[in-house]
Design goal:
This is LysR family transcriptional regulator. By secondary structure, the chain is of the alpha/beta class. It folds into three domains: 11-90, Arc Repressor Mutant, subunit A (Orthogonal Bundle), CATH 1.10.10; 95-161 and 267-294, 3-Layer(aba) Sandwich (D-Maltodextrin-Binding Protein, domain 2), CATH 3.40.190.10; 166-264, D-Maltodextrin-Binding Protein, domain 2 (3-Layer(aba) Sandwich), CATH 3.40.190. It has eleven helices and 13 strands. The longest helix is centred in the first third of the chain and has 24 residues, at 67-90.
Amino acid sequence: MPAGYPGLPSLNALRVFEVVARHLNFRLAAEELGVTQAAVAQHVRGLEASLEVRLFERLPRGLGLTNAGHAYSTSVRSALAMIEEATRLLRPVPSHLTVSVTPTFASKWLIPRLGHFAERHPEIDLRVLATDRLSHFHTDGVDLAVRYGQPPFAPGLNAELLMAPTVVAVASPGLLAEMGRPGDFAALQRYVALHDAHNFWPQFYAAVFPGHSPASARTVRFNQTSLAIEAAIGGQGIALASQAFVSDDLAAGRLVQVFPQQLRLDKAFYLVWPRKRQAPAALQLVRAWLQAQAGDRKSIV
């Protein structure tokens, strides 16, 4: 602590206090901050000890702010907002924005479109974090994430529908020419079923060939959808994938849709970002651009 500001608590402790005061719950605060409940409780105890003031009432079903804690939280929240705004104004352009996506979403959907984004928004330094691990907004420095599932995802997060995928069966035209298009269940069994981590094949069998067993000895399994798609392009078998991920390959003739049926899912891709007082302008632009791309609009933001 600088000598000119003796006795002031750490900025990190104040930030933890503000989040706990907002949620009145250690678990929810820990989820927003991306730390453990024990770490949150330790910060709160340390802050109360350093101030020699009790900020929270420990209630049977959670927490409550004392009168001192309520007044202090209002002042701290305003002070943190001023610091955040002052820091934002200091940052030079281009603005930095980190988007978290899965490797398949990155390689088969986002990356082919990034050239257009860079051309239209050169002032934004867009950073793509491609990982199968669930990213934490605070600890990983993520501003926006694309998540597959159903909301709500976590307290303190906004969620906005990006696209509702439909799953199709695809194979290389060369493989279909060699083996013949599978018109019935028996013919399909001659093909290798390329699986990914989602394992849509049982649902697809039930939708296209009801009453037949989904079991097949001819399978190859991958941990990522993009690998199954590449195997299908290479003529290794039939893959199930979101139509959004194979649309370019279908248009280019690298893949062919094997069956006309599409499997509709109860989950979808959502844009997810922290609920803050004021979202940065770059976040709004990236969200609008992603929505426009997902909608295949002629006029892109």
